[in-house]
Design a protein that fits this description.
2 domains; globular; Histone, subunit A; 8 strands; Rossmann fold
């Protein structure tokens, strides 16, 4: 996919603003690669680009899926490839922007084929407790158990499903990407940790000033993937008066900082994106110019 440029990085790093400015300068279109911004109905909680950014250039896979629909890396890949193909067909560059590592790697490398969901097997596994599921996973796939979020029942169940259906650990099969995509071009946007964490804290406070509590209160049905949006459960607890506003804000800030740390670790291990530390640059314009120079090195669409 040489008609694609990636702007990736942790939450609150400023990558959306950069991607939009770059896209506007080179007549490109933006494709979101965020596991939660793809949902429609929680724009504040998922920190979707604001209206001024959305109006500057066409956006795809932002607020595109209802909250009731379950998403996966495979589904995202299908939607993203379709969007990129349509953009390229119009003779334009697609700029993929986001921070969901698995979604991005599914797009750049492809996913190993995995068995379809067996409803009967899933029902049996879902009937077990999380502790029982974790013990089973440790027994059959210790490497996978180290990597998977064992507090996330859906992911533990899926790993056990894959083992039960293939007799091979899910971790072994998930490692079977199509191989490094040497045609991938992009930047890994980051900031010094103290600056990034301060931006995260301010963003969460701003979400509450803008009414994120009311936003969550209006959600009725929600899928097993959308409900994992950082802060959703905490705001539900606030609405149920189980915690107060300051406790809620502090909890979401901490969870988001931890998420950003995991994102930084992930992207540092991906060699196909060049690091771009915004803390070391003079200003926003300098970062845009730096990215535009890299975009200019791509071959023309009709080459």
């Amino acid at each position: 996919m040489r008609n694609v440029f990636y702007v990736v990085g942790p939450t609150a790093s400023g990558k959306s603003e950069l991607a939009v400015e770059v896209a506007a300068r080179c007549d490109a279109e933006v494709v979101g690669a965020d596991a939660f911004q793809i949902y429609r109905g929680l724009p504040l909680l998922t920190a979707q680009p604001n209206e001024s950014l959305l109006c500057k250039v066409p956006h795809h896979l932002v607020a595109a899926v209802p909250l009731t629909e379950a998403m996966s890396a495979e589904k995202f890949r299908e939607l993203a490839l379709r969007a990129i193909e349509e953009i390229n067909r119009r003779g334009k560059l697609a700029i993929v922007v986001g921070g969901s590592g698995l979604y991005l790697k599914a797009l750049t490398h492809g996913l190993a084929p995995l068995p379809a969901v067996d409803p009967e097997l899933r029902a049996k596994l879902n009937a077990l407790t999380l502790d029982q599921l974790s013990s089973r996973l440790l027994a059959v796939d210790p490497l996978g158990a180290e990597k998977v979020d064992r507090k996330n029942k859906r992911r533990v169940v899926r790993a056990l499903e894959i083992f039960a259906q293939t007799k091979r650990p899910a971790s072994e099969q998930r490692a079977q990407w199509a191989g490094e995509n040497r045609e991938t071009h992009g930047v890994f946007v980051l900031r010094d940790r103290a600056e990034l964490y301060a931006r995260i804290d301010r963003r969460i406070e701003q979400m509450f000033r803008e009414g994120v509590t009311d936003e969550v209160s209006q959600v009725n049905e929600i899928s097993a993937t959308a409900v994992k949006t950082i802060g959703f459960d905490q705001i539900r607890k606030l609405l149920e008066r189980k915690i107060n506003r300051q406790e809620c804000i502090a909890a979401i800030q901490q969870m988001t900082r931890r998420y950003a740390k995991r994102q930084l670790t992930w992207f540092r291990q991906q060699p196909n994106f060049e690091p771009l530390n915004l803390s070391l640059l003079k200003d926003h314009s300098a970062a845009v110019d730096r990215i535009l120079r890299k975009v200019s090195l791509l071959r023309p669409l009709n080459d």
